[in-house]
Structures are given as C-alpha cells and as structure tokens.
From TrEMBL:
This is Phosphoenolpyruvate carboxykinase (ATP). Mn(2+) binds at residues 202, 221, 258. It comes from Hyphomicrobium facile. GO terms for cellular component: cytosol. The keyword Endoplasmic reticulum does not apply. GO terms for biological process: gluconeogenesis. InterPro entries: PEP_carboxykinase_ATP, PEP_carboxykinase_C, PEP_carboxykinase_N. Belongs to the phosphoenolpyruvate carboxykinase (ATP) family. Pfam families: PEPCK_ATP.
C-alpha cells in the first residue's frame, strides 16, 4: 500500500492538539509516570503490589450493540453487513468533530505503539485517551517501540477513547450515548461513553482483521504457545472459554492470550500483553496469571481490594463478574521475547458447553474443523451477562469472534482451510464447560483435567491412541488419556440420567443445524457432512 493512502484521512494531530495547549498532551509516558498521573487525578487506587486498580462504572464489558462501521465506497462490498451495524460518513464526521471539540478541553494521554510482532505486518497505532490508566492499559497490552523508533512515528491507525463523551443518538446516528465508531477507510476508531478498556484492544484487533486477509494473513481470535520441541499451538475460543488460562502453561512458552496472525512465516502475536479474567483467580490453578496480577503497573479493572490492606479479593464479584487484569507479556516468566513462532502443529478450538453434551476433547478432521470454526459455538451462563436466567444460552459466534471479524466468514474460513491443509495441522475440539449434567446440575471440568488432555494432544501422542466415533457429532473421541478418569471422556456416562443426556444432545445438534443454515451456500459438501446427524435435513441427504 502506498504511503499516501496509508496516511490519508488520518486524524490530524494539530486538530486534536492545537500547539497552544500542547502542555496538556502527555505523550508516551512510561509506567511509573502513568501510575503517578492516575493516582494524582483520582482515577484509581494502588494495590499493595503496586497494581493500579480502577472501576469502569456502568460498562464492565464490551458494548457489542454500540459498535458501528462506517459504510462508504470502500467498505460497502468488503464488510459482512449481516453481522455489522453501519454508520454513514456524515454521522461519523459529526462525531469526529464533536470528539475534537470535546478533547480540546481535556488533558490527554497518547501512546504510540505497534500492533503485530511480525515486522512486515506491523501496524503503527496511536492511542489517545482521556485517562492516564487507559494509557497504561494499552501500553501494557500492545507492543512498545524502542525510544529511537518513536521519533518521527507516523501512525497508520488511530484510536481516540473519551469515556466521558456522550453520543447524541439522533445527531450521531447511535443507539445510545455509548459509541464505538470504526472508520476503516480513514483508519480511525472513536470510543465514547464507556471506559471498559477491552474496547481499545478489540478495536485495533478489528482493524487488523479487516486489512490482513488482503495480505494473505489469517487473523485469529486465539491464544498461542510453543512447546519445548518448538511446536506451536493455537487456541481459538470465544470469551470465557479458556484462551488466556490455558495458554499460560509453565511447560510451554507463551506467545499471547488473544489475537494472532498466521502468515507464510508462521504465527505472530498482534499484542505485547495479556488481559486475564480475575474472577475467582486461584493462585494454585493459575500461578502465572496470579503473579502477573500482583505486580507494579498491572491494571486491575473492577477488582475489589481491601480498603486497609489493599490486597485484591479476586473472589468478590460485586463490581463485575468480568473483572480483569492487564499486564505486559514479560510479567509471565516463560513468555516469548519475539512474539513469533513457526507454523502451528495443532489447532485447538475451545468451547464452554454449558449443556454438558460435548466431550472434553475430540479429534477433528479438517472438514469438521471448518464446520466448528464457522459455527463458533459456546454457551453463556448466569453471571457473565446481566439479566440472564438459570438456563444456559447457546452462542454461535462465527470464526470464534464474530464481533471483531468484519469480513464475510468465508474469507477467514478459506484462509484457515488452506493453512490447515498446507501445514498438515492436527485439529481438536476441547470443551472446558460442563460435565455430569448441564450448568446448574453438573460441574465445570477442572482446569487440571483440561490441561492433562491438552498435554496429551499437543505432545503428538494422543492422535494415535484408540478413539471412538461420536454417534451424533461424528468426531473421534479418545477412550483413555493418562491421568484422566476415563468416564469423563464419555459425557453420557457422567450424567445420572443417560436419556436426559440424549435429549440434550438432540437439542444441541438442532441448534447447530439452525445456526449453520446460513453458511450452507458457501461451503463444500465435506464441511456440510460434518454437521451433527440425527436431524431431518441431514438424514434426507
Ligand atoms: N477447564 C477449564 N479450562 C479453562 N478455564 C476454566 C476451566 N474451568 C474453569 N475455568 C475458568 O474459566 C475462565 C476462562 O477464561 P479465560 O481463560 O479468560 O477465557 P478467554 O481468554 O477465552 O476469554 C477462567 O476464569 C478460568 O479460571
Ligand atoms: C478482551 C476480551 O477478550 P476475551 O474475553 O476473549 O479474553 C473481551 O471480550 O473483552
Ligand atoms: Mn482472554
């Protein structure tokens, strides 16, 4: 891409920061100074460890319904509009003008950072925020340039996040006062009315997911790590399925916990830090994440701390179920220094099946992997979202990340399918959800069981072990794994009432079918044949 088009339309720094008031723009401050600003400005509190603790108020998670993509000549044919809300160019321009006038009266924090560990695919990003702690957050999360690289740093993508800005629905074309407006053509994202920091990192991610397919790079909502033998693995999964938890593994080098690309050279992290859930964080089950969450300059979002000792109580969900910890990768002892690794040997698709149906691990053929990638199944349970009843809710979020994958799923699906074939990758479906019954009746599969299953799969041993074929889903399920109670491998045997298991399985299979109908026109027959059986539309084939 030519430089002129890269920079064209980018928000002008002179507009945002007139020279007369440049005093109030804090550029590329380092951690200690950002913490000082945060404390001085009353943005949060210091934990005993030196972590910076903030509350985000009303929004403690992403506002999916308030995210917009500007519809223009370039995006019109490129975005999968079935999955995105459009905003007109005029509405965006009004919003931008109002962001600029709002920002004029504020002290602002600016971080110039890279997204993308692979040099050829590095995106120069500028993140402008109202709060010092947001600057600290994104500095922890993205990749920090060398001081010499900051001179003459020309951003190729800008995010402006002003939590106290309120959108005017009628004037800006929004649904509420909260807005995440993505202008991919101008390469600007405007975030207002929410201070949940995850919006910033996922905005950068969404833009990379828009541009990288054009460079023949597969962008993935996944974590990744590397074994001692140099074999890398990626773990796709929707929120809460275990990407962050399971990728932090003392026996494997951590590449990253959430966003990666797969190019001709192998895989690379987009980020330079992690964003872990801290609710019920256990020091013994997740020692690395626990340590990274108790250190100077880690940002703790909506974590309750003791008012006297300033020690976090990770069991307290009064502020949010989705409490978070943001820390740089070097807070994890065995993290990768480069953020890059070779082509993966294994792909793991994580799901948290709250219906208690799916086995804790299954081996997928490439066609089954494509079916599950396009389906993007997991389930939500009470606690993670406001207003949920006792029943688990199925979620089908294509490519395991629909809110951040702007193009049609076939774009990502085809890239992945070719990469799996080209590199002869072994694919697995891993259920980190419920066993012995659905949510409320059974229990969640212990982390140590999931870890043992993954160890067997990633070592290369498991794929040659005896397997049974699941009668409904058709994938291969190991009959024994060292260190794991064999009963757990056959969910039907963990249910007190096997007929109830069969009925639940039929229900889940039907949900898969109903969801997959929209993809049927785009996939080859082998992928369609990976649908669960026992349903009329399949039986008729
Ligand atoms: N068997 C399991 N595997 C993975 N995570 C589990 C398991 N059982 C419980 N959990 C909990 O589920 C949550 C998984 O969340 P996380 O790793 O942050 O997911 P993601 O990064 O995919 O959003 C963590 O809070 C973890 O402690
Ligand atoms: C940061 C997020 O990712 P995840 O929950 O997948 O870790 C998020 O969804 O806001
Ligand atoms: Mn995560």
């Amino acid at each position: 891409m030519r430089a002129a088009s890269v920079f064209m339309g980018l928000i002008s720094m002179a507009e945002l920061f007139p020279t007369s008031s440049s005093q109030r723009v804090r550029r590329n401050l380092l951690e200690a100074e950002l913490v000082e600003y945060g404390v001085r400005r009353g943005e949060g509190k210091l934990a005993a460890s030196g972590a910076f603790v903030v509350e985000t108020g009303q929004h403690t998670g992403r506002s999916v319904q308030d995210k917009y993509i500007v519809r223009d000549a370039e995006t019109e044919g490129a975005i999968w509009w079935d999955n995105a809300r459009g905003m007109t160019e005029e509405e965006f321009d009004r919003l931008l003008a109002d962001f600029i006038s709002f920002a004029r009266h504020k002290e602002l924090f600016v971080q110039d950072l890279y997204a993308g560990a692979e040099k050829g695919h590095q995106l120069k990003t500028r993140i402008v925020t109202e709060h010092a702690w947001q600057s600290l957050f994104i500095r922890n999360l993205l990749r920090r340039p060398e001081p010499s690289e900051l001179e003459g740093f020309l951003p190729e993508f800008t995010v402006v996040d002003l939590p106290s800005f309120r959108a005017a629905p009628l004037y800006h074309g929004t649904r509420s006062e909260t807005v995440i407006a993505c202008n991919f053509t101008k390469r600007i994202v405007l975030i207002g009315g929410t201070s949940y920091a995850g919006e910033i990192k996922k905005s950068v991610f969404s833009f990379l997911n828009y541009i990288l397919p054009g460079k023949n790079v597969m962008p993935m909502h996944c974590s990744a790590n590397v074994g001692k033998d140099g074999n890398s693995a990626v773990f796709f999964g929707l929120s809460g399925t275990g990407k962050t938890t399971l990728s932090a593994d003392p026996s494997r080098e951590l590449l990253g916990d959430d966003e990666h690309g797969w190019s001709d050279n192998g895989i690379f992290n987009f980020e330079g830090g992690c964003y872990a859930k801290t609710i019920r964080l256990s020091k013994s089950a997740e020692p690395q994440i626990w340590a990274a969450s108790n250190r100077f300059a880690t940002v703790l979002e909506n974590v309750v701390i003791d008012p006297v000792s300033r020690v976090p109580n990770f069991d307290d969900n009064r502020l949010a179920e989705n409490a978070r910890s943001a820390y740089p990768l070097d807070a994890i002892a065995n993290a990768s220094a480069t953020g890059t690794a070779g082509h993966p040997k294994n792909i793991v698709m994580l799901t948290a099946d709250a219906f208690g149906v799916l086995p804790p691990i299954a081996k997928l053929t490439p066609s089954q992997a494509m079916y599950h990638f396009l389906s993007g199944f997991t389930a939500k349970v009470a606690g993670t979202e406001k207003g949920m009843g006792p029943e688990p809710q199925p979620t089908f979020s294509t490519c395991f990340g629909a809110p951040f994958m702007p193009r049609h799923p076939r774009v990502y699906g085809n890239l992945l399918r070719n990469l799996i074939a080209q590199h002869d990758v072994d694919c697995w479906l891993v259920n980190t959800g419920w066993t012995g019954g659905k949510y409320g009746e059974g229990t969640r599969i212990p982390i140590k069981v999931t870890r043992a299953l993954l160890e067997a799969a990633l070592s290369g041993d498991l794929k040659d072990q005896p397997m049974r074929t699941d009668p409904v889903f058709g994938f291969a399920v190991p009959v024994a794994v060292a260190g794991v109670d064999p009963k757990l491998l056959t969910p039907r045997e963990t249910w007190a009432d096997p007929q109830a298991y069969d009925a639940m399985t039929a229900k889940l299979a039907q949900m898969f079918h109903d969801n997959f109908a929209k993809f049927a026109p785009y996939v080859d027959s082998d992928v369609l044949k990976a649908s669960p059986v026992g349903h009329p539309s399949v039986a008729a084939e």
